[in-house]
Amino acid sequence: MRKATWFATVSIVMLSILVVGCGKLSKEEFNLVFSEHEAQQAEKFSQVESSVTALDGKVDQQVSALKESTGKEIEAVKNEALTAIEQGDADTIEAAKSEDKKTLKAAQKYADKSDAKLRKAAMAAAEEAEKNAKADAKAAAAKAAKADSKAAKAIELANAAQATADKAIKSKPVKVAVVYFASGKAALTDDATSALDAAVGKIPAGAVVRVVGHADGTPVLGGKYRSNWDLSEARAAAVRDYLASKGVGNDIEIEGRAHTEPVGPTYTKDGRQLNRRAEVIVYNQ
């Protein structure tokens, strides 16, 4: 519309310029012609604008009707879609529930079957364990009986060994007295007689008594003893005679061993004193 008005106006102006330029119209004439033309054009433009306005109104009505119709169609389509979705969800949920029921039923059936197998396996294991336990108990009882037999035999052997040990201890030689002598002498000193008096009570009846005499190794150069052998034997005899005088009625054996069994060093005075001795030994029967 605006383009048409602008084109008409420009056309008139250009025409006027050409006319005036050619010198055929005066200014007043031109203005008159232009005014008439402008009035005509304004009336045409008014008619056109009315037509356009009416057309616009129709277009707006059609657009509004189209929008209303389209909106209803869209709403209907939307509602149908929602209904379909809801129905689909419901169908899906129902199908899922049905599937869950099937799965649960299958699982329960499997569980029952597995439980039966487990019970059967447990029963078999229990029976096997009981069988093994009985076998182990029987074997243990046999071992225990064998151990008891061995223990009884061991006790018997121990008792026999104890009896043998007791007998050995009883028959073991017991030294009841040791007496000492002066160098080259066989006479008993007071200390010697005191030691022998104490030994009398330690000699049981029936026991064998042996008296062993010793010397210190110093050479015998004179006197009534020819050697340390004779001297050591004389010392044993002196002890025997004293014990007999004190009432010891046991058989008393004597033996002289000279200087062959020293108990002290022979190169010291004290050592030689220890070697000049007689020992009273009792052998229990």
Describe this structure in words.
This protein is α+β, with helices and mostly antiparallel strands and 285 residues long. Among the domains are: 2-73; 173-283, 60s Ribosomal Protein L30, Chain: A, CATH 3.30.1330.60. It is built from five helices and four strands; from the N terminus they run H-H-E-H-E-H-E-H-E. It has a four-stranded mixed sheet with strand order 1-4-2-3. Helix 4 (228-245) links the parallel strand 2 (208-213) and strand 3 (252-256). The chain is rod-shaped. The protein starts with a helix and ends with a strand. The model has no long low-confidence stretch (mean pLDDT 79).
At a glance:
The chain is an alpha+beta fold. The chain is 71% helix and 9% strand.
Remind me, CATH topology of the domain at 173-283? 60s Ribosomal Protein L30, Chain: A
Instruction: Let me know the average pLDDT.
Output: 79
The number of distinct helices, counting runs of at least 4 residues, comes to 5
Give the overall shape, derived from the CA principal axes. rod-shaped
What low-confidence regions span 5 or more consecutive residues with pLDDT below 50? Answer: none
Strand order of the largest sheet: 1-4-2-3
Work out the strand percent: 5-15%
End-to-end C-alpha gap: 166 Å
Secondary structure tally: strands? 4
Main sheet? 4 strands, mixed
